[in-house]
Specification:
The chain is an alpha+beta fold. Helices cover about 30% and strands about 25% of the residues. It has a single domain, classed as NADH Oxidase. Helix 1 crosses helix 5. Strands 2-7-6-5-8-11-10 form a seven-stranded antiparallel beta sheet, with helices on both faces. A two-stranded antiparallel ribbon has the order 1-9. Strands 3-4 form a two-stranded antiparallel sheet. The protein is globular and about 45 Å long. The longest helix is centred in the C-terminal third of the chain and has 21 residues.
Length: about 220
């Protein structure tokens, strides 16, 4: 296996996020949340990867994304340098989450305005990807999450950005695992970058995206 190249900073700023997806529709996500009354150290003690996934509603998923990926502000008044609940590479928050529920169109989370952008891929394509995910373990009626970044966008700031994006995705996965536990959801990462799934879903090539993982979440 070839050794990954070390990332290095580029002296540039575009002040915009280059899109790597087409929009079919969009909708606002709920914002009325009740924080669980549980200590962080209790969450760490009881967390485990569970393999029973029941259907989640939009409010469930909105809660997870609000506490792990929403933009909470800008750094130095720059559009492209943002604050989020978790650390990100260069303050760029380049990793996006795609949500795939059973027999529904997939949508991508837009963290600046806490919105869902529906993707134009057919339900058949989405269901076929969910079926492939079942080769890892039975995901049941759980929600499949795919993690991806725009290669042109992150490449404007870093040469060889792949390992940075992978590390950022790892931080998101770890944080989502803890938030899911606090909310009494089942959560487990999948051992894949989801490259083929994302290329099929988004209809683009590896020059456009950096695929960085997948996970499953559901009610217990």
């Amino acid at each position: 296996m070839p050794k990954p190249k070390e990332p290095s900073i580029m002296a540039t700023s575009r002040n915009q996020l280059e899109k790597f997806y087409c929009e079919a529709d969009s909708f606002d996500l709920p914002r009325n949340f009740t924080c669980p009354n549980i200590d962080l150290f209790d969450v760490l003690e009881q967390r485990s990867s569970r393999r029973e996934y029941h259907a989640m509603n939009t409010h469930d998923i909105s809660t997870l994304l609000w506490f792990t990926q929403r933009h909470t502000g800008n750094i130095s008044d720059l559009i492209d340098r943002v604050k989020t609940p978790v650390p990100t590479a260069g303050g760029l928050a380049s990793v996006r989450t795609i949500v795939m529920q059973p027999s529904e169109q997939a949508w991508i989370y837009e963290p600046q305005n806490h919105r869902a952008i529906t993707l134009p891929a057919s339900i058949d394509v989405c269901n076929s990807i969910r079926k492939l995910a079942n080769k890892f373990f039975n995901i049941g009626d759980g929600t499949l999450l795919l993690f991806v970044a725009s290669r042109p966008f992150i490449s404007e700031y870093y040469e060889n950005p792949e390992t940075l994006v992978l590390r950022e995705a790892g931080v998101i996965l770890g944080t989502q695992a803890l938030v899911a536990e606090a909310l009494d959801f089942s959560f487990c990462p999948l051992g894949t970058t989801a490259k083929d799934w994302l290329l099929s879903l988004l209809g683009c090539g590896e020059e456009t995206i950096i695929p960085v993982g997948a996970s499953v979440i559901g009610r217990r």
